[in-house]
Amino acid sequence: DQQVKQNSPSLSVQEGRISILNCDYTNSMFDYFLWYKKYPAEGPTFLISISSIKDKNEDGRFTVFLNKSAKHLSLHIVPSQPGDSAVYFCAANGNNAGNMLTFGGGTRLMVKP
Amino acid sequence: KAGVTQTPRYLIKTRGQQVTLSCSPISGHRSVSWYQQTPGQGLQFLFEYFSETQRNKGNFPGRFSGRQFSNSRSEMNVSTLELGDSALYLCASSASTTNEKLFFGSGTQLSVL
Fold first, then answer.
1. What is the CA B15 to chain-centroid distance, rounded?
2. CA-to-CA separations, B49 to A99, A104, B56, in angstroms, rounded
3. List of chain B residues whose C-beta atoms are within 8 Å of the C-beta of residue A43
4. Is A32 helix (H, G, I), strand (E, B) or coil?
5. pLDDT tens digit string along B29-80?
6. Are A59 and A8 in contact (CB under 8 A)?
């Protein structure tokens, strides 16, 4: 049973436009969510996180939105740059779960110049 | 500050053998987590150690084990290797065990023939 799902395996966006990556979860015990970016042959790199007590968190070009009632979160990248091309993973953590993250399957973002 | 270091980078083993992977966390980080990444199952949590104690364990057979030393360095061991154990094994460290962003190493790519 996949508790965190990223339904779009890939996304292609023009440079300068907005990239929107989506993530759905089923476990209502999740209360902390993170986005990671991964290049081939490297480990994931932390991008941004959000606690369930918030519905939005911004960090530069990256904004994460959380809709708890829909169990949905999204990552917005504005403006998108070719260097943003990578695989993006959303991850969720539950209360008292330590650092046991549940990851989605990833979305490959391609930003075209 | 040096990042998370994993050794070896690549490893080739045959079925039935055992393997030990090593991880040195970021200096000052006391939590070390291990994840397995495969094309079919994505990123899956193996276990987490904090102050030499296993705090959480994922849904993996007992052939997968780990430990953490007093200097926070960690090792994971897989005994009686199976073809399906071929994967990228990622180690991550963090300063604490609650809602902390994880810093990942580049991983050990294990191939079982």
1. 20
2. 9, 23, 7
3. 4, 90, 92, 104-107
4. strand
5. 999 999 999 988 889 999 999 999 999 899 999 999 999 999 999 999 999 9
6. no
